[in-house]
Structure prediction request, 291 residues.
Amino acid sequence: MREQTLTGIVEARATRPESIAAAARTRTPASSWAGGRLMLVAADHPARGSLAVGTRAMAMANRRDLLDRLVLALSRPGVDGVLGTPDILEDLLLLGALEGKVVIGSMNRAGIPGTAFEIDDRFTAYDAGALTADGFDGGKMLLRIDPSDPATADTLQSCADAVGDLADAGLMAMVEPFWVRRDAAGRALNDLSPDAMIRAIAVAQALGRTSAYTWLKVPVVAEMERVMEASTLPALLLGGDPGGVPPEEAFTAWQKALTLPTVRGLVVGRTLLYPPDDDVAGAVDTAVSLL
Prediction:
């Protein structure tokens, strides 16, 4: 990003905050997309303080660098859009990077990892009204079900309300469900066993007054065929932190899961934005080719 471009974003935020809403109003929305495949880039991780990618502890800390990577990813052929929190999506609006793109706003970001309130996933970002006003296409929510934490009940209720509100507005409700277990130190860990994912999907798909606009966002796990048989809802595959897994292994797993009847595409962030060789365009193009 050129220095003057960054300066322009800062200047607009400081002196013309109304220009963000104006950019949203004048943005060209995505054309019809619900019937096809979707390739979305995810960028809502920093809002939970999750800045690490693999061994790079602060990989996502530099906002200018993150925006550079996002703009490049969104410019590649076959990339339909982005998932992000208001701060990131508004920067992208000011950069003109959301023209003709599917835009999904991230909604509940309060459950910060490592805190005493991690499972209390309150809605601290977008709501259905704001997404409608900005002309965006849907809202995403994380649903972590921890049998040992009473805060799960409030999260379930909040997600159910959000699913209904989004449906009333005709917007996608993207639900990302996990069953949570605790390790010996009491830390919350997503249980990625097939049976746990099936239970989480079973709960998530029944949330709200209607499931007509609900999509699932799910990881690729073992016995993926059996897992995805738990629902008739359309689903998108998530990427997650690649850790030490080579990108080629992730691509192979996505390619196999994309053949399942309910799987409609990918929502991937860190694996594509911060590949080991930093070739963002190459990683994105490979992911698009899987569709």
About this structure: The radius of gyration is 18 Å.
